[in-house]
Each structure stands twice: as structure tokens, then as C-alpha cells.
């Protein structure tokens, strides 16, 4: 290490000085420098323009505040004057150090390192004025904004995790590898930030999976012949994930799986998670409550035991029945569904068990029936509570013996069918009233699964609304881009007696009615906008749902903001209450970084129940 002292103290570390030709700019005196701070929990970047001074410390009034306990409130001042980079200690407790020596005031060269407590500050020249490397916090804030934008407009974006080409590259001057790939990004559009000394994150707005892959290959390609390629992991919103944390984790995970031979890897895209909400194959959305249910469903899927699904109408019982079948060992066998309420009692028996030719008027040919059709597979009996007592007796018989006879025949047919039934009726009460056979009830309900109503699954609301919006656009030849915050808040405040089915219908109607690119509250049906008197959030939602005169912008914003705030408080509080105010778990369920959750709890004035 060459350490040179001059005029007070001047230090230069062993890292190479960046030549002007290496990054294409003028000397630092003319274009400024970048200081990259590595502290225990992250990386922060500060730009220093010629003639400028910046104070770094743990808190205000420092210009750059880093949450590191080894820093003093105002720890050190960096300045760039006449091409010289100066650092001054501001009487800090843990000192400012260069090359192992505590300094009060010293000049640092490009590529030099300064220690503030345990925080390492590296002096580099990075990028250009139009594409600077961003600090971690501002980069994450941009990602948050990008997610909101992507939700509104139904368009995706991608995150790249770019790793330094060689293990020791991170120790080389940062600019050497970062500027190499940053030159390939779109100026003024893409954003980059250092995640760790050897990994940078890049945000590619408005970029789908294919374009992201092309960009990743461009970023990965070796900056010059004979040099190693960058390793790049790609995570695409919303296909791979829909939260900042998850996207970063997936992009980094993909980069970890890449190698020099295969330098670009993409995170899998078959499922995405948002606020802990998963979108499964077949378009099923599952938030925290549904996931617990699906875990239970998976466990019982491959037993032949009868399953009864209970829950209000439209909660997704039929979808759950399909899920169970698809997770069973006989997923390749038939899955047959019948809605018992939709069949006239006179036809029910022949529909289930088939009939012989001529068994009754109109029976012009033999039919096998649904039990036979579902042989070796699954029969889903929806609305089983609607079966007549005669049909209940016939059903009980086949469940007990595994045999049945077609109507008009004495010949018995043997079947192996897994029965899943569903009802929104209170079967216990029906048994007590004699309207449902107790023995059949026990046969059907070896395993009982309860599907929660939509009002208890508010974490799914956003994903469900977007799913139905996409489907409604496709079905109606429309291109509505999303829901306004106000419309979303109205949806969140409604009780949804018709559950997911009602939400699907409401969104379809709104897509057809929408006059703007975003669905507005007035595109929603009056019953959804109407609020019961005791529900403050709904009252606010209703106010927000009225189109506002555009006279006074501040007046327009107020009720909307108040409402959104209230609805947000309600959602956060519900999540916290559900997990006994365990913030980590609540943050996971809400899909929020814990820091954001903690901040919002404070800002919204939420307190745990006494
Ligand atoms: N978790 C979900 N993700 C996506 N779509 C869902 C979900 N749950 C329900 N749906 C949709 O909501 C509608 C109603 O679902 P489903 O028919 O499964 O409800 P159900 O409880 O069986 O209703 P019913 O009791 O009235 O028969 C369907 O269009 C279904 O695709």
C-alpha cells in the first residue's frame, strides 16, 4: 500500500486511480465524484459536486444520514474543491480513519477508502450525470413506485441482480465493473444501486420477460475482449413475484445459480406472490388464509376419504375441489362435477347413476351416469345440501358399498370414486331438522374444510381484482389498465356477501362501463359504494366514490387521502391483530418490508389492543 503524506495528511490506498479515459468523463474536479458508503445493513451512495461539501453522520443535521451505530450524529465532512477531495472529522466518537490512522483532516485520492467508525466510504467516479448509481433507500422507494405503477397500468418490469465478474472484482475500484455494465442501460429510464460490494441491482421499468432477458444478456456480455462476463439474475414482475423483497431475493437467487458458462439466469415465473398472495396454475389466488387451507387440502388430496367443503356462496369451493383433485394421485383420471341444486329431483338419480334404455319416458338409450364417468377419479357434488331425501339414500348406498345400479336395471356396477361435496348450507341444522340424513352427513364429511369468506381474505383483494380485470378486458375487447386507488379502497371496504364471484362480476361490469383508463369508484355498483352507517371506512369510501369537481386540487385530494389512509389503517390493523401484533409475520403477510410497516404503524397511530 502506498501511503503518502502531504499538507496535513494525504492518503492514497492501493486501489487504482480511475483514469479519465476509463469512464469517459472529465477530471473529477469538473464532473464530481461518488462516495459509496458500506455500512452494516446496506449501501448508500452520495454524489459530491465540485465546490460542494456533504456532512455524513447518524442523524440530522447531517446531509447524509446512515443508520449505523458506530457513527456520530455529525461524523465527517467530505468536500471537493479545486480537484481535491477532502475529509474532515467533526469530533466523532469513533473517529475517521485512513489506512489505519485516525485523521482530523486529510485529502483522499480517487479510489481511496475512509473508515467512519465501522462504515467504509469509497471514493469513486461512477456513471454519468444522467445515470447515477442510487442509494439503497431511494432505489427501494423507486421499486415501490414501480410496483404501484405496474399495478395501475397492468404492465410489468424487471429487476436484474448483476454480480461482479470475478471474485476479486469487488475489491477493485467499484467503477471498474459497475461502469462497465451501466453503460449498457437506458439513460434516464433504468436505475441501478449497489446491493453489496460485488452485486448491483438494476430496475428495468416497462420491461417484460423477453426484453428483460435480452437486456440481461447485453449487461452480462464482457465489457472488452478477454474480460469475464458479468453474472446476471433476472426477476420479472408480476410473473416471478410482486413484492420488492421477493423480487430482489429471486433476482439474487437466480444470479447465485448462474455461472461463467451460463451467465444469465431467470427466476421461475410459474407462480407469483404478492402480499403473501400466490397465484397458482389455473389462475387461483391464495392469500395467507387460503394458503393454510390449501396446505391442508394438499395433505388430504391423495387419500380416498370423502371431503366436504363448507363456506359461503362464491368463496371458491369448486375451485378448491379442483385443486384437491389436481393434487391427488389420480389427477390424470376423470374429474366430474355436478351441481345438485341445478338438477330437477326427477333427473337426479339417473344423472348420477345412469339409466337403461326405456327406463322412463325419454330414456331412448342407455346412459352410464356421472358415478360411472368419474370411476377411478373424483366426483364433485356441489350444493349437496339440496339433495332430496330419496337421492340422499341412493348416494349413501353407493358411498357405503361402492356399488350402484342404473335406473331400470338390477345389475350392480362397481365403482371407485372419491367424492368431494360442497355446501353453503348449515348441514348440522339440516340434520337436526331432519332435512339431511345424519349417516350421509358423516359419510361425506370424513374431512371438512372451511373456505373463508372474502371479507376475511382482504389480502387477496388486489390480486383478485387484477386477475378479473385482465380476464374481463380479454372477454370484452377492452383495455382498461387498472383500478384507481380510490376504487380499490371502495372494494376493500365492502363486505362482499357474494364473495369472489360477486367481485368477479363487479369488476367485469366496471370494465365494460369504465370511461377512463383506470376504473373509478363511480364505475362500481351503488351497493358496493354504499356504506353502512357504522363503518367509517365505508363512509369515506363512498365520499371518495363521488366524482369530485376539479375546482380546488387540495380539496379534491383530502377526502380521498383520508379514506385511503383509513382503509390502509384497517388492513394493517387487521393483519396485526390476526398475528398477535407480531410485526415480522404481519409484514410477511402484507408483503411489506418490516421497516415500512413499522413506519406506517407509527404514522397511522396504530396501537395493539389492551
Ligand atoms: N381464490 C380464487 N382465485 C381466483 N378465482 C376465484 C377464487 N375463488 C373463487 N374464484 C372465482 O370465483 C367464482 C366463484 O367460485 P366457485 O364457483 O368456486 O365458488 P363456490 O364457493 O363453489 O360457489 P357456490 O357455493 O355458489 O357454488 C368462480 O368464477 C371462481 O373462478
From TrEMBL:
- Which domain of life, per UniProt? Bacteria
- Listed Basic and acidic residues bias regions: 1-20
UniProt entry tagged with the keyword Transcription regulation:
yes
* All residue ranges annotated as the FHA domain in the record: 54-103
Name-wise, this protein is Sigma-54 dependent transcriptional regulator
Source species: Sorangium cellulosum (strain So ce56) (Polyangium cellulosum (strain So ce56))
Ranges of Low complexity composition bias in the record:
529-542
| Signal sequence, start to end | none
**Keyword terms of this UniProt record:** ATP-binding, Nucleotide-binding, Transcription, Transcription regulation
Amino acid at each position: 500500500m502506498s501511503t503518502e503524506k502531504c499538507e496535513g495528511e494525504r492518503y492514497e490506498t492501493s486501489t487504482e486511480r480511475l483514469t479519465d479515459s476509463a469512464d469517459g468523463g472529465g477530471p473529477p474536479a469538473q464532473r464530481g465524484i461518488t462516495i459509496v458508503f458500506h455500512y452494516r445493513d446496506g449501501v448508500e451512495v452520495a454524489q459530491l459536486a465540485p465546490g460542494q461539501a456533504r456532512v455524513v453522520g447518524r442523524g440530522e443535521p447531517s446531509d447524509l444520514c446512515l443508520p449505523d451505530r458506530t457513527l456520530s450524529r455529525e461524523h465527517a465532512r467530505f468536500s471537493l474543491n479545486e480537484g481535491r477531495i477532502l475529509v474532515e472529522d467533526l469530533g466523532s466518537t469513533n473517529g475517521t480513519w485512513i489506512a489505519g490512522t485516525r485523521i482530523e483532516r486529510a485529502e483522499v485520492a480517487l479510489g481511496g477508502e475512509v473508515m467512519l467508525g465501522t462504515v467504509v466510504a469509497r471514493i469513486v467516479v461512477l456513471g454519468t450525470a444522467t445515470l447515477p448509481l442510487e442509494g439503497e433507500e431511494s432505489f427501494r422507494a423507486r421499486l415501490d413506485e414501480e410496483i404501484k405503477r405496474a399495478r395501475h397500468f397492468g404492465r410489468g418490469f424487471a429487476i436484474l441482480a448483476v454480480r461482479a465478474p470475478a471474485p476479486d472484482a469487488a475489491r477493485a475500484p467499484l467503477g471498474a465493473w459497475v461502469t462497465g455494465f451501466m453503460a449498457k442501460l437506458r439513460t434516464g429510464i433504468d436505475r441501478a444501486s449497489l446491493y453489496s460490494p460485488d452485486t448491483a441491482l438494476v430496475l428495468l421499468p416497462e420491461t417484460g420477460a423477453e426484453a428483460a432477458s435480452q437486456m440481461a444478456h447485453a449487461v452480462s456480455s464482457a465489457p472488452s475482449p478477454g474480460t469475464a462476463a458479468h453474472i446476471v439474475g433476472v426477476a420479472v414482475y408480476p410473473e416471478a413475484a410482486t413484492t420488492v423483497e421477493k423480487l430482489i431475493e429471486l433476482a439474487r437467487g437466480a444470479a447465485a445459480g448462474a455461472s461463467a458458462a451460463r451467465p444469465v439466469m431467470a427466476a421461475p415465473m410459474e407462480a407469483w406472490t404478492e402480499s403473501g398472495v400466490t397465484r397458482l396454475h389455473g389462475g387461483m389466488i391464495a392469500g395467507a388464509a387460503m394458503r393454510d387451507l390449501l396446505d391442508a387440502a394438499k395433505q388430504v388430496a391423495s387419500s380416498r376419504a370423502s371431503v366436504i367443503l363448507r363456506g359461503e356462496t362464491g368463496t371458491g369451493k369448486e375451485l378448491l375441489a379442483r385443486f384437491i383433485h389436481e393434487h391427488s394421485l389420480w389427477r390424470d383420471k376423470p374429474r366430474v362435477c355436478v351441481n345438485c341444486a341445478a338438477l330437477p329431483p326427477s333427473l337426479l338419480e339417473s344423472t348420477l347413476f345412469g339409466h337403461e334404455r326405456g327406463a322412463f319416458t325419454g330414456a331412448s338409450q342407455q346412459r352410464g351416469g356421472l358415478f360411472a364417468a368419474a370411476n377411478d377419479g373424483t366426483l364433485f357434488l356441489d350444493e349437496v345440501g339440496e339433495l332430496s331425501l330419496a337421492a340422499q339414500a341412493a348416494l349413501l348406498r353407493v358411498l357405503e358399498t361402492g356399488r350402484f345400479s342404473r335406473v331400470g336395471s338390477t345389475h350392480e356396477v362397481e365403482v371407485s370414486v372419491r367424492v368431494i361435496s360442497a355446501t353453503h348450507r348449515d348441514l348440522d341444522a339440516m340434520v337436526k331438522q331432519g332435512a339431511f340424513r345424519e349417516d350421509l352427513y358423516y359419510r361425506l364429511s370424513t374431512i371438512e374444510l372451511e373456505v373463508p369468506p372474502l371479507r376475511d381474505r382482504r389480502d387477496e383483494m388486489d390480486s383478485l381484482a387484477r386477475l378479473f380485470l385482465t380476464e374481463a378486458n380479454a372477454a370484452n375487447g377492452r383495455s382498461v389498465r387498472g383500478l384507481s386507488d380510490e376504487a380499490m379502497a371502495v372494494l376493500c371496504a365492502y363486505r362482499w356477501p357474494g364473495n369472489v364471484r360477486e367481485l368477479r362480476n363487479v369488476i367485469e361490469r366496471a370494465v365494460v362501463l369504465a370511461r377512463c383508463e383506470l376504473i373509478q369508484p363511480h364505475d362500481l355498483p351503488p351497493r358496493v359504494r354504499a356504506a353502512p352507517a357504522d363503518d367509517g371506512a365505508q363512509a369515506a369510501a363512498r365520499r371518495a366514490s363521488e366524482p369530485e369537481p376539479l375546482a380546488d386540487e387540495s380539496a379534491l385530494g383530502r377526502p380521498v387521502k383520508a379514506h385511503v389512509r383509513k382503509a390502509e389503517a384497517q388492513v394493517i390493523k387487521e393483519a396485526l391483530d390476526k398475528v398477535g401484533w407480531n410485526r415480522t409475520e404481519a409484514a410477511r403477510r402484507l408483503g411489506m418490508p418490516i421497516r415500512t410497516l413499522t413506519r406506517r404503524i407509527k404514522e397511522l397511530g396504530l396501537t395493539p389492543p389492551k
